[in-house]
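[audit] Reproducing an earlier prediction to check determinism. Same input, same settings, fresh worker. If the tokens differ from the archived copy the diff job will pick it up downstream; this log only records the rerun itself.
[audit] input (89 residues):
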Amino acid sequence: MNPRDLPEVVAELLIEMHEVRSEMKAINGRLNRLEHRIEGVETELKLMREENRQNTDCMIDAFSKSMAPLIDRVLSYEKHLNTLENPTS
């Protein structure tokens, strides 16, 4: 390499360095936004899981309450059958 070309080469390297630095800043900005979005998605998922758990608990409670009369009738019918099969007289 010719020593006279050195200032031009250094100038080109400086320009490249500034371009790379600018691109890296843009990438870092994108990464920061992506990390923020991921945090938001994780928070949303946690809230959805909790809501689903609560909804499931409510559905189980409602189902249990709605089935209670039927279960009582079946148990009563079973007791009635037992008394018919084994009278105590």
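[audit] rerun output stored. Observation attached for the diff report: The mean pLDDT is 92.
[audit] end
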